[in-house]
Amino acid sequence: MANFVVALWESVFQPGTSPQLVVATHISFFLLLCVLGSQIYLTKNIHFIALTVIATLLWITVTWFIFELNSIKLSSNQDLQAAESKKTDVVEDSGPVESETSKETAQTDQSSSTPRKRKTKSRRA
């Protein structure tokens, strides 16, 4: 049990999902639904029924999200930096390229140097 808690705590700081995190998520949702089910049985309050429906839909959504995370390959920071450096190397080799955003920035820099008059509405008391 202590090993599971340590592995769960360490998995929180790692990218992606770990088996301990998935198990803890399912246990938490199961216990939440047990508590809500007991409250429905004891009080027969419609609010607990609504909360049970919301919690069930959230559990389904989280399970789907975990499945989607596991189906894609997560890139580490080093992989992302290597890909970014390859992109910048290709751009530098091809010569200077002026993008649309740099043109827009130049236009906004020129227009921002002159102050604009503010239109204010006068209030009558």
UniProtKB/TrEMBL annotation:
<protein>
    <submittedName>
        <fullName>WGS project CCBQ000000000 data, contig 00058</fullName>
    </submittedName>
</protein>
<dbReference type="GO" id="GO:0070072">
    <property type="term" value="P:vacuolar proton-transporting V-type ATPase complex assembly"/>
</dbReference>
<feature type="compositionally biased region" description="Basic residues">
    <location>
        <begin position="115"/>
        <end position="125"/>
    </location>
</feature>
<dbReference type="GO" id="GO:0005789">
    <property type="term" value="C:endoplasmic reticulum membrane"/>
</dbReference>
<keyword id="KW-0472">Membrane</keyword>
<dbReference type="InterPro" id="IPR013945">
    <property type="entry name" value="Pkr1"/>
</dbReference>
<feature type="region of interest" description="Disordered">
    <location>
        <begin position="85"/>
        <end position="125"/>
    </location>
</feature>
<keyword id="KW-1133">Transmembrane helix</keyword>
<keyword id="KW-0812">Transmembrane</keyword>
<dbReference type="Pfam" id="PF08636">
    <property type="entry name" value="Pkr1"/>
</dbReference>
<feature type="transmembrane region" description="Helical">
    <location>
        <begin position="21"/>
        <end position="42"/>
    </location>
</feature>
<feature type="transmembrane region" description="Helical">
    <location>
        <begin position="48"/>
        <end position="67"/>
    </location>
</feature>
